UniProtKB/TrEMBL annotation:
<feature type="transmembrane region" description="Helical">
    <location>
        <begin position="20"/>
        <end position="45"/>
    </location>
</feature>
<keyword id="KW-0472">Membrane</keyword>
<feature type="transmembrane region" description="Helical">
    <location>
        <begin position="115"/>
        <end position="133"/>
    </location>
</feature>
<feature type="transmembrane region" description="Helical">
    <location>
        <begin position="224"/>
        <end position="243"/>
    </location>
</feature>
<feature type="transmembrane region" description="Helical">
    <location>
        <begin position="57"/>
        <end position="78"/>
    </location>
</feature>
<keyword id="KW-0812">Transmembrane</keyword>
<keyword id="KW-1133">Transmembrane helix</keyword>
<protein>
    <submittedName>
        <fullName>ABC-type uncharacterized transport system, permease component</fullName>
    </submittedName>
</protein>
<dbReference type="InterPro" id="IPR010390">
    <property type="entry name" value="ABC-2_transporter-like"/>
</dbReference>
<feature type="transmembrane region" description="Helical">
    <location>
        <begin position="194"/>
        <end position="212"/>
    </location>
</feature>
<feature type="transmembrane region" description="Helical">
    <location>
        <begin position="139"/>
        <end position="160"/>
    </location>
</feature>
<dbReference type="Pfam" id="PF06182">
    <property type="entry name" value="ABC2_membrane_6"/>
</dbReference>
Length: 258
């Protein structure tokens, strides 16, 4: 049943893409532009130095491309759905989704795909194809682990967004708090060892947003820590339970417009 639902969502998303072609073109253009600016900035920085805190040009480019990949996979799968979810919570229009045979959190997480984001996903993959051969140490195993932890990074970013969106059930004006995850992910676009010790502790061991992007890149470089790897996996498992419990409790606060 869920796969049939995904087919319907895909068809509707394609239709929306062609209906709003001009908007989609602008979204693609600015996405490509921002990625190009990031790459050009790296070229300029490494014109004057060979290494930044132990990260050479290709390692930093791999991290930057990983950040872009995680960000736009999330955007492709969940962003539009999460935006609609906030509106539905505020306007009290969740009734129909709560009685459908598919889990209410799941169905409200995947309502529409952001088709223009596919362009940026492809660009990130192209950048990785350019940079990874210069940093890869584990060959096939490293690539498999990289893909796994990129997906874990996407899932972690989904959980972070879902966590803040759930507060819309309690807060009258939730749109500002729902924007916090975007700022958090921006922090993760840089190597974790460039941050001061207090921020490193905060964003690695307290709330490991830095690990979501840094771990995949470190796996390719072969300098990852097993301790941080296991900690990140355990944190995601516990965070998943927390977000799920939060959703269940939040539904008790839901007020229907009807």
């Amino acid at each position: 049943m869920f796969f049939n639902y995904l087919k319907i969502v895909w068809s509707l998303s394609i239709s929306q893409f062609f209906i709003y072609r001009l908007t989609s073109v602008f979204v693609c253009f600015f996405g490509v532009l921002f990625t190009a600016i990031e790459v050009i900035t790296l070229f300029v920085l490494y014109h004057y130095t060979d290494s930044i805190n132990g990260w050479d040009f290709y390692s930093f480019l791999t991290l930057s491309a990983t950040y872009t990949l995680i960000s736009y996979i999330y955007q492709f799968c969940f962003t539009l759905s999460h935006e609609k979810l906030i509106d539905k919570i505020v306007e009290g229009e969740l009734d129909y989704d709560l009685v459908r045979p598919i889990d209410s959190q799941l169905i409200n997480s995947i309502k529409q795909f952001d088709i223009p984001s596919l362009i940026n996903i492809v660009i990130a993959i192209v950048l990785l194809c350019f940079s990874v051969p210069h940093v890869l140490t584990g060959h096939i195993f490293g690539i498999v682990m990289y893909i796994l932890f990129v997906l874990m990074g996407v899932y972690f970013y989904y959980l972070v967004n879902q966590f803040f969106i759930n507060f819309a059930f309690w807060i009258e004006r939730p749109y500002q708090i729902a924007a916090i995850p975007e700022y958090l992910l921006d922090i993760a676009s840089r190597p974790r060892n460039v941050y001061p010790p207090i921020l490193h502790i905060l964003f690695v061991w307290v709330f490991p947003i830095l690990l979501s992007t840094n771990l995949p890149a470190e796996i390719l470089r072969g300098d990852f820590s097993v301790v941080t790897l296991v900690y990140f996996l355990l944190f995601i498992i516990l965070f998943s339970f927390l977000v799920r419990i939060q959703w269940k409790q939040a539904l008790k606060k839901y007020q229907s417009a009807n």
